[in-house]
Backbone:
């Protein structure tokens, strides 16, 4: 490896950097191609928390759970739903099938029953704007509806499914109304699709139908037609809504593989055209390389790569609203969320609106608990990465699906880390005691040397952080808590900072530009750009299945490799940890995975990659880029034992940083001038100024 002078007399340090992961320019319907898709973009790993909701015709009876349309036909098992159906509505095998909840009919008391919520503007209880605000106040960064559940009722203006919310029931494009309200608040838009089970078992108790319309509703059109319909519905929501996340429920493995591959290729190619980074999740049927694995009502037992998700609900008994439903406690929900984040995961929390669209107060209270915690301690959650160790204490959370939310204790701590390598956050799941000295056994000098840094306890909402007395030795970090408990909270976060920097305020939604729907609910083609696509680099690229390191920022620290990830339905374990991001570039800008960097910030006048940027995909152009201050070298990524993926990225090339960590304004000006000159010259030669392996030289 060689390095030459950029400017005479300016000493530069050189180090190898991870080769940029190249995002394909198109995808084909093959695993070989689709496995190249980055499963979790930076914005998704930064966001951590999203909210969705089970609300549809399937919950109209408000009895049992969201499987009421299935179980109301379970006459042989004499299910409680079947008995309820007979007593309240009528015989499902005679004149009161599930279709009546959609088209409307009188129950045995003569009351008209139909899933037909009305907007507040039409005198109803459904207020999508208020719902969006509730979700934002809870601290979620992405949200969306169950666009179709197992019942087969589409909540958009489907052209391939006559059983939809525009032609029947509410006669509203409910998904479009939510998309407009949520994106207006800056939320990334998620659409949850549960339709793989629609024709693979959900209606197993329904007798064979002769009417074509009922065959469509009950998934009885035959395997070929049903598999094609599964794909056609996904294509519709992609074309109409440009969703940032398509979340899918189980039984994808029962869908024809070629159609699964076609769906992913169509979605990812559409996203390239939109200039967006998107997420596809799964519980089965995909291979854990280009998509995000989702644990249902559970989570990983240890730090696990690549980044994963869990979906859980506010209630242990049902995903949709039911009369008398129970709820988890705020401590169970929030503590388990913190645990997920410490293990390189995120949470998609389900709420359950009532049939008319209103949100029960108990659910609002749970969301407010999330909001209070994140308003106070969000800096320890958002934009962080898993640290070397997820936590300490007696309470074990996660370990697979259906492990449920668990409340921690004052003896439990969970860790996260800043992407720049300066800080480890320790989140106590209870107050250990006034004036008590606690030992964070994992925070040893060999793992994280605090040195002359500081330890802060986050303040109350709107309050100031307080500096804590501490010492560090081979047995850990010993921190003395305040003599009087400063506030009462569901958890208490501390920032352990090498630089002694006080905790920053909780960041606002960080999703870049948003694409706003048209008034009719459609989404314009090629709308605004989102997040890390439009500037901003992604951290060091992981290997196939490995997670990206957390580059960016001065002294960027790489993401940590997994430590013995568990294997579950698609495999979460694997060999080899992640590679480290190179941290910050010299003289401004961060190193993206193909993103623009260098002396002129994200882009200069010519809008191509800068001095320290990897060649990759050219950075975005724009007005003159701002000049960054000098960067410092990033810490090398740590490799955990038995992390996931099949290896990290190879390292090649050379990146340079100012050796003393700063540079004069005149030097920066020279670099900006020379960068623009070089870029323009390169443009005339119709090539990038640097290729992998080129020496860096101007003079």
Residues:
């Amino acid at each position: 490896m060689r390095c030459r002078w950029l400017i005479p007399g300016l000493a530069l340090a050189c180090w190898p950097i991870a080769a940029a992961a190249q995002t394909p320019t198109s995808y084909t319907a093959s695993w070989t191609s689709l496995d190249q898709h980055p499963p979790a973009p930076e914005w998704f790993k930064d966001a951590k928390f999203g909210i969705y909701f089970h609300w549809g015709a399937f919950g109209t009876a408000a009895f049992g759970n969201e499987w009421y349309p299935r179980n109301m036909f379970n006459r042989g098992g004499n299910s409680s739903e079947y008995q309820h159906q007979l007593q309240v509505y009528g015989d499902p095998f005679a004149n009161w099938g599930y279709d009546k909840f959609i088209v409307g009919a009188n129950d045995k008391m003569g009351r008209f029953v139909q899933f037909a919520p009305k907007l507040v503007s039409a005198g109803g209880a459904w207020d999508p704007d208020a719902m969006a605000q509730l979700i934002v106040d809870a601290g979620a960064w992405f949200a969306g509806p169950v666009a179709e559940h197992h019942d087969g009722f589409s909540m958009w203006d489907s052209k391939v499914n006559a059983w939809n919310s525009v032609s029947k029931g509410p006669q509203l494009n409910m998904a479009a109304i939510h998309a407009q309200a949520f994106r207006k608040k800056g939320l990334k838009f998620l659409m949850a699709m549960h339709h793989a089970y629609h024709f693979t078992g959900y209606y197993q108790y329904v007798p064979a139908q002769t009417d074509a319309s009922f065959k469509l509703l009950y998934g009885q059109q035959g395997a070929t037609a049903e598999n094609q319909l599964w794909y056609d519905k996904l294509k519709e929501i992609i074309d109409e809504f440009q969703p940032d996340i398509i979340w899918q429920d189980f039984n994808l493995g029962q869908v024809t593989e070629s159609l699964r591959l076609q769906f992913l290729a169509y979605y990812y190619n559409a996203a390239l055209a939109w200039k967006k980074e998107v997420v596809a999740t799964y519980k089965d049927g995909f291979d854990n390389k280009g998509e995000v694995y989702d644990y249902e009502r559970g989570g990983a037992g240890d730090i696990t790569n690549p980044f994963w998700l869990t979906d859980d609900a506010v209630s242990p008994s049902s995903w949709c609203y039911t009369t008398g439903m129970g709820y988890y406690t705020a401590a169970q929900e929030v503590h388990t969320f913190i645990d997920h984040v410490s293990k390189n995961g995120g949470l998609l929390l389900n709420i359950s609106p009532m049939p008319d669209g209103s949100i029960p107060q108990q659910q609002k209270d749970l969301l407010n608990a999330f909001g209070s915690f994140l308003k106070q301690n969000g800096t320890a959650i958002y934009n962080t990465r898993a640290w070397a160790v997820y936590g300490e204490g007696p309470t074990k959370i996660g370990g697979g699906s259906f492990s449920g939310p668990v409340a921690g204790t004052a003896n439990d701590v969970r860790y996260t880390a800043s992407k720049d390598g300066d800080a480890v956050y320790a989140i106590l799941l209870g107050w250990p005691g006034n004036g008590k000295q606690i030992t964070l056994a994992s925070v040893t000098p060999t793992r994280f040397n605090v040195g002359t840094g500081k330890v802060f306890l986050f303040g109350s909402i709107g309050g100031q952080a307080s500096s804590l007395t501490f010492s560090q030795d081979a047995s850990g970090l010993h921190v003395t808590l305040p003599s009087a408990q400063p506030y009462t909270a569901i958890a208490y976060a501390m920032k352990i900072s090498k630089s002694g920097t006080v905790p920053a305020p909780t960041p606002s939604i960080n999703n870049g530009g948003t694409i706003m729907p048209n008034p009719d609910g459609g989404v314009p083609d090629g709308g605004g750009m989102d997040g890390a696509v439009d500037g901003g680099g992604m951290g060091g690229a992981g290997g196939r299945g490995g997670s990206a390191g957390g580059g960016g920022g001065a002294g960027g620290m790489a993401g940590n490799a997994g430590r013995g990830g568990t294997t579950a339905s698609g495999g979460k374990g694997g060999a080899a940890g992640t590679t480290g991001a190179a941290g910050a570039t010299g003289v401004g800008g961060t190193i993206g995975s193909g993103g623009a960097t260098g002396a002129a910030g994200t882009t200069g006048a010519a809008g191509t990659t800068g001095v320290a940027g990897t060649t990759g995909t050219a950075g975005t152009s724009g007005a003159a880029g701002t000049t960054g201050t000098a960067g410092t070298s990033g810490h090398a990524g740590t490799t955990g034992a038995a992390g996931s993926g099949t290896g990290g990225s190879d390292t090649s090339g050379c990146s340079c940083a100012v050796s003393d960590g700063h540079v004069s304004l005149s030097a920066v000006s020279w670099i900006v001038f020379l960068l623009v000159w070089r870029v323009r010259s390169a443009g005339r030669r119709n090539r990038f100024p640097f290729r992998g392996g080129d020496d860096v030289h101007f003079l």
Remarks:
- The longest strand covers residues 466-473.
- The CA atoms of residues 513 and 530 lie 5 Å apart.
- Confidence is low (pLDDT under 50) at residues 1-20, 512-699.
- DSSP finds 14 helices and 23 strands in the chain.
